[in-house]
Amino acid sequence: MILESLGVEDFRCVERAELELHARSNLITGQNASGKTTLLEAVFFLGRGRSFRTAQTETLIRSGTEALQVVGRIQAGGRSRPLGMRADRFGMDVRYGGRPVGGLAELAAVLPAQAIDPEVHRLIEGGPQERRRYLDWGVFHVEPGFISHWRRYQRALRQRNAALRAEQAESLVRIWDAELVEAGEQVASLRARYVKALTGHVADVGHRLLGAPVEIGLHRGWAADRPLSEVLAASWPRDRARGLTHPGPHRADIAVRFEGTSARERVSRGQQKLAAAALLLGQLRCDAELGSEVAVLLVDDPAAELDGGHLERLLGEVTDLPAQLVVTALDPQISALASLQSGHRFHVEHGAVTRLV
């Protein structure tokens, strides 16, 4: 999969922009607040249906306009087809090859997009939902059956929680337990298999970036030595009292450790950023090895908060990936960016994009 072109209209500060992208590397330069990050955000939005900076889609619409539009051409399997997205304050319309896209899962399969931005440390210091999203993105791209099990689990969980909140009889609440357990065990099993494959890649990238392995471990969302059915039954009094289901894969998390210490608690912000980058870069390596489509990796201002040595190591890992790269930088003369100069280069000023030759 290659994103051949990008068209943006009324997205944040960008009124209109068109870019023909290189299949391997793309460097976007410009001053702060010029629109560099907006272009990365538009690519991410095209592949995820959301921004990596905000959950509020309406805030992405350029001031004074009613809707935003992002379009691209996707080259896959020898064919080039358009992918387009229009969003206003009432909803979103997404089409691929002229037909409506069924949902965000289908969109993610069309354009796998991952981002390393200055706030990437949130993957380490943020809540479990950040790491679950990261985990499930990876599992989704290498385990074709994962999405159906995940959807089944989410439906059963919603129904069970609704029955708990309505204070229905125990027999009516627990009628959902069998479906919850069956789908939940499948979700947890696929996650565990993926983490087993992922662990070595993350450790290796972490060692190259930080000088020591970044270690990960999966907490599946309930006690490791007991089946979900047993834990769910034991949790009934608490579930009833609080009106929600406690154990299950919706409570899963990834523990991240560096040099024997929780990366969340004692590691510096710069180390957290590199540890988070190790998670993301290790994931892309793992997914490629397991047969996933080539992804687009977006790297926003990698020089922020990193010294020259760490920046060079990070960009060395990035440029060695089997991925299409789109990287932004304030200063194009940074020596670590030299490997990106052979691809396409763009300059952004006040939201206007110029192709450099």
3D structure, described in words:
The chain folds into 2 domains: 1-112 and 294-357, Rossmann fold (3-Layer(aba) Sandwich), CATH 3.40.50.300; 121-292, Up-down Bundle (Glutathione S-transferase Yfyf (Class Pi), Chain A, domain 2), CATH 1.20.1050. It is built from 11 helices and 15 strands. It has helices spanning 36-48, 104-110, 122-125, 128-142, 146-165, 170-173, 177-210, 228-234, 236-242, 269-289, 308-319; strands at 2-11, 14-20, 25-29, 67-76, 79-88, 91-96, 99-100, 113-116, 214-219, 253-258, 261-262, 295-299, 323-329, 344-349, 352-356. The strands form 3 sheets. It has a 6-stranded antiparallel β-sheet, covered by helices on one side. Strands 8-12-13-3-14-15 form a 6-stranded mixed β-sheet, with helices on both faces. A 3-stranded antiparallel β-sheet has the order 9-10-11.
Can I get a quick summary?
This protein is α/β, with parallel strands linked by helices and 357 residues long.
